[in-house]
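>> received
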Amino acid sequence: MPPSLQRSYFVSKKALHVRLMDGDAGHQYSRIRRVKCDEAKPHCHRCTSTGRKCDGYSTQEAHQAEQPPNSLSLGPSISVDPCATGLEKRTFDFFRTRTAPCISGYFPDPVWDRYVLQTSQHEPTIRYAVNALGALHEERHLRRTVNETCSDVPAISNGFPVLQYSKALHGLQSLLHAKTVPMDLVLMAVLLMVHFESLRESFVPALVHVEHAIRLLHSSTTFDARKVDPNLVRSIMRLDVQGSLYLGMRIPGLPFYTAATDNIFPTSLHDLAQARDLVNVWTCRLFHFMRAEADEHKFKDVGGVPLEKLAKSHELTQTFVDLDALLWDFMHRPTLKLTVREQLGLGMLRTRVKINKILAATCLYSEATMFDAFLPDFEDVLSICSYILASDAADRRLLTVSLDEGLLQPLFTVATHCRESRIRHSALVQLRKLASTEGSPRGIWHVEAMVRTAEVCIRFEEACCERANPSCSDIPEWCRVHSSGFDGWDVQPPKRQRVFAHMRLRPNGMDGEWADFSEAIEWSVSSHSMLGGAERQLLMEHDQLGQRNPYRYRQTVSARHGWALGPQTQIFNVA
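>> returned
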């Protein structure tokens, strides 16, 4: 026997233990079959070909072989900077354990599960933005825990979130002036800042960040969009779609990206991530068609719709019918194993697809009675949303606008566009639950405003009927609200004392002119006091600084450009 193959044999009562002595200690003989391991990785072919488990590799090495090359275990690999202060360490830990999971919502998201946490370890701008968002989220959590009127909580009165956000803004300006900075870092910083602005309910700065990120992706001079991680672009795209969902005249800004992705419609879905990406891409395409082409025929040039636009509407409708069928088949796959969180995410995708199907089928027509044909879909959306609200924890919902992929907007659409009294009032009940989930008696401003706008629409339409619980046939076309919304999106939170709900109708029938009505909505929203006067003044100073910087371009988005809400909402000159 050659010396290089010398072996020492250790015989026990049950099995023969053989260990190689030639330095390759990782490969052993199978203890049960007494055959030599063929050293194939990650598993021995001689064992796996017969359906057995190979004992030729140690447990640790087998586990390492099964790990994907880019996988990351967040527990041991993510550590806080040893030079960080105690407050920074606590904030980062809160962001890692509470904020990031809330933002990722119901779906596995590598951006928030890995990328942001990893990058914050070596990039100061990302670390400052993480600290700002985590600290602001922790303050909201403390307010919900100890009651919003409590003034003796130290973390609420300090300006740590705003100071960190200011440092992040300066860091982003430095990144934009550098020559070799990856686009990924810029988009990651923008994402964090959008969530920070949304959490403090400053929606105009949040949308400005999104718009500028889209401009950077369009640019071909400074940055190469082809080298950007697709997951980051998809995160920006979801925020882009949110802007078009809430702002009735805004056109999504990423059609160039959606045109180059997911062009081949799949016959089946492999996982939940693929389903989410597919739904978001087609949602972006739908709203681009609605805002750029369909709204012109629905609200201004009624009738005379070109055949190619009718064909596009039918194509989009059929696409969402097929998507609904794909999600149904995926949900009922016998081998599918989803966590509770993923099951809720799948339900939210189904509500989004059903609402998109309704919008695609009605986007070219100005008759509000067209929605009466979709009562089964409205009821399905209500059932799914009610189940999610009853199953999910409140602190996972509505941290920022990006989380609303299947609750707030679908429920608002059901309440305002379904004329069946039982269904729309049930949707209104669920909307009220959303408005009170953030811990304060009146909830978040824009959620409360949506609820009260829906109440105004329902009260206005049902006042025309003599029945207590009217059905679709009891509400005539001339009494129906075609679009609804509210102003105040471009007003800073401390000044939002009162908003106006706007409604657009055709009281003289299909041949008559549009008539716009408004009703004042006034209530006290305590979440506006999240930042003190000094903190708000500091933010105002940095906003003024940003207006002189190329990054913070002029905020041209205002109420006259359509700060409204709803699938087909536009704000015109209100009489």
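>> The longest strand covers residues 498-505.
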